[in-house]
Amino acid sequence: MSTISPDHLIQSVADGLQFISYYHSQDFIEAMVGAYEREQSPAAKDAIAQILINSKMAAEGHRPICQDTGIVVVFAKIGMGVRWSTNRSLQDMIDEGVRRAYLNPENPLRASVVSPPWGARKNTRDNTPAVVHTEMVEGDKVDITLAAKGGGSENKAKLTILNPGQNLVDWILKTMPELGAGWCPPGILGVGIGGSPEKSVVLAKESLMDPIDIQEVMQRGAKTPTEQLRLRLYEEINKLGIGAQGLGGVTTVLDVKVKEFPTHAASLPVSIIPNCAATRHVHFTLDGTGPAQYSQPPMDIWPEIVQDHSNSRRVNLDTLSKDETRKWKIGESLLISGKILTGRDAAHKRMVEIFDRGEKLPEGVDLENRFIYYVGPVDAVGDEAVGPAGPTTATRMDMYTDRVIKETGLLGMIGKAERGPEGIRAIKRHSAVYLIAVGGAAFLVSKAIRSARVIAFEDLGMEAIYEFDVIDMPVTVAVDSEGNSVHSVGPQKWRKIISELPVAVA
After folding, report:
1. CA distances to 24, 78, 252 from 47, in Å
2. In this structure, which topology does domain 313-490 adopt according to CATH?
3. CA-to-CA distance for 384 and 262, rounded, in angstroms?
4. Cα–Cα distances in Å, from 463 out to 93, 111, 374, 375, 413?
5. How confident is the model at residue 1 (pLDDT cuts 50, 70, 90)?
6. In the predicted model, is pLDDT for residue 505 greater than 80?
7. Could you state, in order of their start, the residue ranges of all structural domains in the chain?
8. Residue 230 burial (10 A CB sphere; 0-12, 13-18, 19+)
9. What is the CA radius of gyration of the chain?
């Protein structure tokens, strides 16, 4: 019988969350390198390159891979023979570990959890509470799988209840394009089949914690019906041509993981959840001898990649006019310099409320002929101007876009992934433009930010409005002033190219 100290669990959780904030696992890096080497789409290849460069920078600098440092999810398997030297609850001990990790002054992680979940939605400031799934098992050890799951990929979770005779592959292939690119592909797709509706969702989430091994399965051949299903989904999803960041390309998923559970004879629950390019999870076991120890991946697993910006258009945002932005075409690479403002959901909501009251925006919030960047950065440390500051999913701002452009004279927006129909209509109506930065490259993007200051709504924390001064920030034109979208054109083009290849790219 093992006796587990609460300090061992708390320290293991705190150290583990810090560890996964800046270290990708070796299997993920190797899978991304393989995707980079196979990729034939220049835009998608450049996006994967940025993700790999960012990953190595984060590992070397011990700074977050992504500005969205996630909501903490824990799968805890507690041996029936375990004793605890405390009366504290498991939830309480895990939350203390989360609190210590996210408030670590050497590498503060962004607090993204709000409570209550509707209405006031106030930030808890320390990213607690964690979501804890507990299972009592045989043995005298505690096995913990610890994950930090970003909101962009979490928001793409889907659940359906099929009739037993319906084809789950057809539903998944129909649903994948509907997810858009907000989950930052390429990544891993988790599939949960069976159980009850809520069980299938947990299965899909838990499947994402398994190592990437699809290439191994391909090489040796499927041994079970489940492995056959994984291979089929992997091949068919990649044939969709969605590609890295939704720009079109040959790799959309790095792996497809499947977990199953017996279900009711009248039901076939199926859930899917993607893991983004900032996939973060680690496993540890406690047996009473001390806290978990983590080993960094070997630094030579990252390839040496030098980006070529020779074909990128350099843009001075401080002198930019609508006549110039009208010349931009979707898919064009830009290096932007100058001053931009930031703003996410809460800031947009507050601006619209100010418009409704007939009031002026706070001093300094002048958006006329300027760009707004959809970002919630990590706090800076040392001599940083700002911490990792990658883009957030732009579709969440679609409901505000027309009003904000109309009231302010906003010239353009920067975010990640596609815009929805409402957002594209507003962009076309006002001859604005929408640019994307690479999701999953937050530390790399932050190096282009030379100064940052909060100018409004400081009480919103990471959702406050900042002014950034940027130099050569790499972005791509995603929606031009005529409403053309690269996220529509790119996947269509690459779906056709892939269908004409003599052998499907794997």
Report:
1. 17, 41, 12
2. fumarase (3.20.130)
3. 52
4. 29, 11, 9, 8, 16
5. confident
6. no
7. 3-286, 313-490
8. buried
9. 23
Phi, psi (5° rounding) for residue 243?
75, 175
Residue 70 predicted with pLDDT over 60: yes
Judge contact between 150 and 276, C-beta under 8 A: yes
* Contacts by 77-80, CB closer than 8 A, 24 or more apart: 77/134, 77/135, 77/136, 77/137, 77/142, 77/143, 77/144, 78/134, 78/135, 78/136, 78/137, 78/142, 79/2, 79/137, 79/138, 79/139, 79/140, 79/141, 79/142, 80/136, 80/137, 80/138, 80/139, 80/140
What are the structure tokens assigned to 85, written together? 């030297």
Please count the other Cβ atoms lying within 10 Å of the Cβ belonging to residue 222: 14
Q: How many Cβ atoms sit within 10 Å of the Cβ of residue 251?
A: 26
Over 80: is that where the pLDDT of 4 sits? yes
- Indicate the pLDDT class of residue 308, thresholds 50, 70 and 90: confident
How confident is the model over 362-393, as pLDDT tens digits? 999 999 999 999 999 999 999 999 999 999 99
Contact 102, 108 (CB under 8 A): yes
> Would you list the DSSP string of 422-455?
HHHHHHHHTT-EEEEPPTT-HHHHHTTEEEEEEE
Q: Say what the pLDDT of residue 386 is.
A: 96
User: What is the total residue count of the chain?
Assistant: 506
Q: Can you read off the two tokens belonging to residue 340?
A: 């931009």
Q: Is pTM, for the whole model, over 0.85?
A: yes
Identify the helix (H) or strand (E) that includes residue 8. helix 6-22
CA-to-CA separations, 320 to 145, 242, 326, 410, 412, in angstroms, rounded: 49, 32, 11, 12, 11
* pLDDT at residue 416 tops 80: yes
Q: Which of 197-206, 444-453, 480-489, 497-506 has the lowest mean pLDDT?
A: 497-506
Mean pLDDT value of segment 423-442? 97
Angle between the 486-500 and 42-61 helix axes, to the nearest 10 degrees? Answer: 110
Q: Are 39 and 249 in contact (CB under 8 A)?
A: yes
Say if residue 503's pLDDT is above 90: no
In whole angstroms, what is the distance from residue 146 CA to residue 297 CA?
17
Q: At a CB cut-off of 8 Å and minimum separation 6, what does 395 contact?
A: 180, 182, 417, 418, 419, 420, 423
Q: Which residues contact 216 (CB under 8 A, 6 or more apart)?
A: none
SS3 209: coil
Longest dimension (CA), the chain: 74
Percentage of the chain exceeding pLDDT 90: 96
How far is residue 496's CA from residue 354's CA, in Å, rounded to a whole number?
Answer: 47
Distances (CA, A) of 466 to 34, 374, 414: 37, 11, 14
Spatial separation of the C-alpha atoms in residues 232 and 169, rounded to whole Å: 8
- The residues that bridge with 456 in the sheet, in sequence order, are 465
Tell whether the model's pLDDT for residue 132 goes beyond 70: yes
Instruction: Say what the alpha-carbon torsion angle 446, 448, 452, 456 is, to the nearest 10 degrees.
Output: -80
